[in-house]
Amino acid sequence: MSRPTALVLAAAGTNRDHDVAFALDLAGAEARITLLSELIERPALLGDGQLVVIAGGFSYADALGAGRMFALQLEHRVGDVLRTFVAAGKPVIGICNGFQVLTRTGLLPGALGHNASGHFQCEWVTLQAAASRCIWTREITTIDCPIAHGEGRYTHPDPAALVAAGQVALRYCAGNPNGSIDDIAGVCDASGVVLGLMPHPENHVVARQFPGFTHGTHGALGLALFDQGVRYAKEQ
Amino acid sequence: MTPNFVVVRGVERLTIRSTAADPRSATLLADAHALGLTDITSIDVADLVFLAGDSDRSQLESLLVDRLLQTGDWAVPQSAAIETALLPGVTDAAAQAVALAAETIGTPVAAVATGTRYEIGGEVDEVTMSALAKRLLANEVIERWSIGPIEPTFVDAEAVADVGVELVDLDGLDDDALLVVNRERGLSLDLAELHAIAAHFRAAGRAPTDVELETLAQTWSEHCAHKTFRARITSADGQQISPLLQQLRDATNEIDAPFLRSAFVGNAGIVSFTAGTTIAVKAETHNHPSAIEPFGGSNTGVGGVIRDVMGAAHRPIAVTDILCFGPTDLAADHLPDGVLHPRLIEAGVIAGVADYGNKIGLPTVAGAVLYDPGYIANPLVYCGCIGVADDTPPLTGPHAGDLVVVLGGRTGRDGLRGATFSSATMDATTGDVAGASVQIGDPIVEKMLIDVLREATGLFTAITDCGAGGLSSAIGEMAERIGADVDLAGAPLKYPGLRPWEVWLSEAQERMVVAVAQTAWLQLQQLCDRHCIEATALGTFTGDGVLHVRHDGTTVLRLDTRFLHDGRPQRSMQAVLPTPDRGSAEPPQCPDVAATLLSLLRHPNIASKEAVIRRYDHEILGSTVVRPLIGRNHDGHADGVVIADPADTHGLAIGIGVNPWFGEIDPQRMALAVVDEAIRNVVAVGADPDRVALLDNFSWGDPRRPSTLGELVAAVDGCCAASIAHGAPFVSGKDSLNNEYLGADGARHSVPPTLVITAVAHVPDANAVVTPDLKRAGNVVVQIGATACEFGGSHFAKVHDAPGMAVVPGPDAAAPVRYRRMHQALRSGRVAACHDLSEGGLAVALAEMSIAGRLGLSIDTLPGPDDVSALFSESSSRFVCEIAATDVEWLAELLGEPVAVLGTVVDSPELSLPGCASIPLDALVTAFGARP
Predict the structure, then answer these.
(1) How far is Cα B710 from Cα B575, in angstroms, rounded to an integer?
(2) Alpha helices (H) along chain A
(3) Any bridge partners for residue B901, and if so which?
(4) CB of A189 closer than 8 Å to CB of A103
């Protein structure tokens, strides 16, 4: 198939939907922003996609904790269709708020608590791909991109077991910005098809977006992550 | 006016605590100790949810408590604590979410409310507990509090509004009686205006309704009508001064810039720098609300200016904020009563700006933070917004027959009388009087409004936002000359029980008004449904020039729009112009240059703002090229910032100019200096000085005081002169007057005269931008522009509190030509770094370049009349550039003026200046407050 269809799920409060659509376009996918209200009306819509992104933002204004309301709506209105999508091996990625949503639907392990600093942080980080089953981080060593969140501290009761299961996909490697356990920045599900991460690769898809650009240096593009996802979607 | 709410019996309460240490606790404890409440040893924070109705406890707990992060407790805790809950009538977004969630999982609840519980450790008596509650934990403008468990209140679903219309008979009232009506109803009108209204209704043969009086007071308020900027002014020597707004318009007309599309009209200024797209720019102030409710005031300040850009039919792409606070280390006993501590105002305002910008999804990219004792009781909050649109012909509506449609949020009692209140003086009672005057923001709804408008081009013939005065101003302005007939009964309400004038004047946020042709109405409704946005037709534009407002058929307002908009008598005012000292001055002494430089870097107005900037998402939309923080460790300050769509080669630069300390001495030279500074900041980063648009935002004292008005006249004169000299037109502006406070001496004082200039400029090549951080050892640094001994209002004077420094820097006539040639130099790519000189002069600029690049400097030449002036004078229109040693002649020739080589960039981490020991780079970094 030439350009796989990528559905960008957006609820009330999602605000990086257009940033993700631009990244997917550059990575060779046909990005289609799909509102949660439309998906609830016609769950079958999900079937049109070969790849699903749950974009970043403040869905439902983080009421009751970031991602909880979006997850609740997904779970109760579209839960089975989403599980079938994942079972069919189609790639799913949850970025920032999307990661919080996927942990709260149970599709991904662990939880995201308040940053150790106690407030919202916007800064650049470097991520290192860990040895894992994750299809999104194949052939990736590092990624430079920004974080922009207040509830990004990853917690898990037994991180060693997660590592053993090959589900730790990405780690902060030049300083842990929010107190995440074991420097974990992104995890995948057992099948490796679903990835959740707090940082925003979609905001480093063009060289000029790298802060070092103004003093002549280049970083590892976040576009590589979307390239891997789109490539895998084509292989299905 | 208190809303009708009930206390519900049979309520269960869930206390939700975080298992890990809640980060909020540490900050609160530090704040409590800063307020002198030192016997408190710990403050633990828990969230409260109150639920009425017999729903399944375990299901609700699974909904509300996240096992890995929190624990839930249904028992009523007994430990020492303070609990807070929102006042009735204040929107409780969390409660609405709980209700929606409970319904989704099939266990609906009868009523929900939320709150917060602060568990207090240590030997704490009742007096300390209530001081802690009143001064730190609860804001009594929007919250109730209790020592121990709090009793929640719930919305009374059946409240019924009394729709009776009150007639206010003005006929036959003498001046004193008129002024009593004026004060009781908070109209903030003067006698001439009251007489004009009384005469109008005498001729109409009837008494005005309460809604008509309130509408006239809003439309004629200083905030909406700019009465002072449109006033006839005469100076002490009888000289006639043309109205200030007219002077700014005349300057813009004289420049006649080819890129100008619309100036001083409608919601925002509009320019077109590149074929096919236009840019809308606007900046607003939200000072008074932020003084009494810092979070809500700044939150809705950002939401309001974003809506101005949406009201000019442009898609917002960036936000700016300039904040002015009292010193945050103010001793508790120096705090005037009824005033929040600057530390709390700062924390609340910054959190409010961050909350709105981050949630609506717009990068907060440029701004400034200033501190001065003059702002203790009257902080200033400037919020700016930039939007983009395809270059289409302007909208021609409304046309007779078009529907009057309100889009977005529901209407409640938020911010009633916002416009008139912001024109009144602040005093200790302002807190409780103005309680209802603070608006509540919801960035999520506004983001959905942006998405609707993004797809709605062609579906409406006119658009504006609901700002001060709410529907009365929005529909009133749009109906000017054409007239409209609307029924308020159709307006969707947050809760029942609002009287007609409350619906008509409410400043509930996130609402737009559009004129929609009958044929397009269905399509617009379908688009709004898709985005979960409410769209309600309230009536039609009639074409008879009369604004007719009903409620369920009863007429509550009927005004000829000509009288509403043009009936206000022009004010005539007296001004006493300032006569500042502009003679020459002796250079001050500076026994220890290094100590002076370090104390300047530590000064709150110069020190690092990284901690504030990191709270703002400045990465969203992926279009930020030059960030507010630059350099090797991303912890130096940029001059101008640059945004550019990732798919474009060209971009936009944003620069700010502000210096109230010049203004306290010489307002005219202050205006000349800050216009130059804003332009300097965009030129320094690579913008084209031939394509610069300006915004002016004044925060001033009471213009009825002739000397204060005289300072305003001098400042506007400076703005016009600088704008014409640089060929950079003003396209929009706003004045916030009556920023006064009662000082410790019992007298009324005005805030420092604070003029903020925003420059928005075209950047031809966003890949060829230049930043202030030093780039390479071996390069040389050169100074461009001349230095004079001008220390009036300087930060050198502040850190030395040396008397007699009265001469404020004057304008440099060579600046406009210099900036055009600098632009050529910067576009060549041969300038490695460029930094403008402002607070603290050359010494601070060199230190900032060194810190940002983490490279040393060996300086051996100081151009200027004397070393102290060369290092610390704040003369206007100067730059420092880093270039290859071999390019000095090239640059001097290109600029056509002398270029003073100051010294060389070196690897060794120190700044060495002639005549003093070298200063280690680490000492500079630590003083500035950058990361080690």
Answers:
(1) 5
(2) 17-26, 36-41, 68-73, 79-87, 97-105, 159-164, 223-235
(3) B782
(4) no
CA distance B100 to B495: 17
Integer Cα distance of B520 and B523 in angstroms: 6
Which of B358, B444, B647 is facing A120, going by the closest CB pair?
A: B358
* Residue B205 pLDDT grade (very low, low, confident, very high; cuts 50, 70, 90): very high
Q: Is the pLDDT of residue B902 over 60?
A: yes
A119 touches chain B (CB under 8 A): yes
Report which residue type is found at B580. P
Nearest CA to B272 out of B14, B592, B609, B652 is that of B652
Reported residue count of chain B is: 932
User: Distance from CA of residue B398 to its chain's centroid?
Assistant: 30
CA pair distance B782, B305, nearest whole angstrom: 40
- In Å, how far is A236's CA from the nearest CA of chain B? 30
Q: Round to whole Å and give the CA distance between B246 and B704.
A: 19
Token pair recorded at residue A230 = 């789109």
Region of residue A233 (phi > 0: left; psi between -120 and 50: alpha; otherwise: beta) = alpha
Average pLDDT score over residue span B270-298: 93
Closest CA to B698 of B309, B250, B226: B226
Q: What is the CA angle B427-B429-B434, rounded to 5?
A: 100
Q: List CB contacts of B603: < 8 A, sequence separation 6 or more.
A: B795, B798, B799, B840
Residue B111 β-bridge partners? B52
**Which stretches of B729-825 are assigned E, i.e. beta strand?**
730-736, 740-742, 748-750, 754-763, 780-784
Round to whole Å and give the CA distance between B931 and B913: 24
The shortest CB-CB distance from A15 to any of B447, B616, B626 is to: B447
Contact (Cβ atoms closer than 8 angstroms) between residue B844 and residue B870: no
Inform me whether the pLDDT recorded for B37 exceeds 50: yes
What 3-state DSSP class applies to B796? helix
Q: Residue B137 carries which side chain, given as an amino acid letter?
A: L
Confidence of residue B54 (pLDDT cuts 50, 70, 90): confident
DSSP-assigned states of every residue in B581-634: --S--PPPP-S-HHHHHHHHHHSTTTS--HHHHTTS---GGG-EEE-SEETTTT
pLDDT of B423 higher than 60: no
Tokens linked to B847: 């230190």
- Closest to A22 (Cβ–Cβ): which among B630, B646, B770? B646
Which chain A residues touch B767 with a CB distance below 8 Å?
208
The dihedral formed by the CA atoms of B829, B832, B835 and B840, expressed in degrees to the nearest 10: -160
> How many angstroms from the chain centroid is the CA of residue B632?
30
Tell me the C-alpha to C-alpha distance, in Å, between residue B377 and each of B471, B597, B699, B733. Answer: 31, 30, 14, 24
β-strand partners of B388: B279, B315
- Distance (Å, whole) CA B677 – CA B793: 15
**Coil, strand, or helix at residue B521?**
helix
> With the CA atoms of B256, B262, B266 and B267 taken in that order, what torsion angle do they form, in degrees rounded to the nearest 10?
-110
CB contact under 8 A, B625 and A209: yes
Question: Helix or strand or coil: residue A23?
Answer: helix
Residue B872 in contact with residue B840, Cβ under 8 Å?
yes
What is the distance between the alpha carbons of residues A129 and A188, in angstroms, rounded to a whole number? 12
Q: How far apart are CA B90 and CA B103, in angstroms?
A: 22
Residue A177: closest C-alpha in chain B: B614
Q: Is B105's CB within 8 Å of A19's CB?
A: no
Residues in B closer than 8 angstroms to A215, CB to CB, are 631-632, 771, 773, 775, 853
The whole-number average pLDDT for the span B280-284 is: 96
| Token pair listed for B412 | 């409640």
